[in-house]
Design brief:
With 263 residues, this protein is an alpha+beta fold. Helix content is 24%, strand content 30%.
C-alpha cells in the first residue's frame, strides 16, 4: 500500500468517526404516551331550579273534604263556592245569574229536592272572542237522598221529549250517565250536558252550560263551536277524584239546615 492510499484510508476512518459522534449527540426521541382514559377531575354541574310544567301551572285544584270531591279547572276560570253551613252567613244564592246559565241553590232545590250546590266554575265571557259566545259554567252538586237507581232516572227524565243525545263514561271507577239538551232563554240559547254518578251513598252531578247569543244579537260575529267548548269543560269532569266518606256530611250541619233539607 502506498503512502497515498494509507492517507486516504485514514481520512475515511476519521470522517466516519466524526459522523457517528455527531449522530449520537442528537437528543433521543421520547416515546408517545400510552392511550388511556383522561384523568380529568369530575366537574359538578350547577343544579337548576325545577320549573313547573306549563300545563300543570295553568290549572287550579278545587277540593271539598266535606263531600270528598276534588277536581281541576283552568286557572283563568272563576270559582264560586257555596258555604257548607247556613250559619256561616254566606248567601244561599251565590250562583251568577247571567249568560253562564248557572243556577242558584234555590233554583236547584226547586227542581231537585235535597240537592246541594257545592261549587260553580264560570267560563270568562271573553274566552272565545269574535264569536257569539254569551257565557258558560260548570256546576257540581250532590244529593244524599237519592239511590243509585233514582240518581240515573232523574237525569234521564230531564230530557223530556227533546230526544237529546245520551251516554255513559267511567270516572275513577264510577259510571256517570250523561245527557244533552238545548234550551232557549230570551236572547240566549243554552247547550247543556248533565252528568250523574252514584258512589259513597251519594248522587254526584255535574251541570255544563254553554250560552250562545241569538242571530239578532250577533252583531256579525260567528257562532262558537259549542260542542268543542263542552269538550273543554268535560276535561274538568274527567279530573274528578272521589274519596270514601265514612261519616255523613249531615253530621256537620246545624239543626236548622237539616230541617230545611229534609222537609
Amino acid at each position: 500500500m502506498t503512502q497515498w492510499d494509507t492517507f486516504l484510508l485514514m481520512s475515511l476512518i476519521a470522517v466516519s468517526s466524526a459522523g457517528c459522534s455527531s449522530k449520537a449527540a442528537l437528543p433521543a426521541k421520547k416515546a408517545p404516551p400510552l392511550a388511556g382514559p383522561a384523568r380529568t377531575a369530575p366537574s359538578r354541574q350547577p343544579e337548576r331550579a325545577t320549573k313547573p310544567v306549563a300545563r300543570e301551572s295553568s290549572f287550579s285544584t278545587y277540593a271539598n273534604p266535606d263531600y270528598g270531591v276534588t277536581f281541576r279547572y283552568p286557572r283563568n276560570f272563576a270559582l264560586v263556592e257555596r258555604a257548607t253551613l247556613a250559619d256561616q252567613g254566606a248567601s244561599e244564592d251565590v250562583a251568577p245569574l247571567d249568560g253562564s246559565g248557572a243556577r242558584s241553590q234555590e233554583e236547584l232545590e226547586q227542581e231537585e229536592p235535597g240537592a246541594v250546590l257545592v261549587a260553580t266554575v264560570v267560563v270568562p265571557d271573553d274566552a272565545y272572542p269574535n264569536t257569539t259566545f254569551a257565557g258558560g259554567s260548570l256546576q257540581l252538586a250532590v244529593n244524599r237522598y237519592q239511590t243509585a237507581g233514582s240518581c240515573r232516572r232523574e237525569l234521564i227524565s230531564r230530557l223530556g221529549d227533546s230526544n237529546g243525545r245520551d251516554g255513559a263514561v267511567t270516572i275513577q271507577g264510577v259510571e256517570f250517565a250523561w245527557v244533552d239538551n238545548d234550551e232557549g232563554d230570551g236572547s240566549t240559547e243554552f247547550f247543556e250536558r248533565d252528568y250523574a254518578g252514584f258512589a259513597n251513598g251519594t248522587c254526584y252531578q255535574f251541570f255544563l252550560r254553554v250560552g250562545v247569543a241569538t242571530a239578532e244579537d250577533s252583531d256579525g260575529a260567528r257562532p262558537p263551536d259549542e260542542r268543542k267548548i263542552l269538550g273543554h269543560m268535560e276535561k274538568i269532569v274527567s279530573s274528578l277524584q272521589l274519596e270514601p266518606q265514612s261519616v255523613s256530611v249531615l253530621d256537620g250541619l246545624t239543626t236548622g239546615e237539616i230541617k230545611r233539607r229534609t222537609r
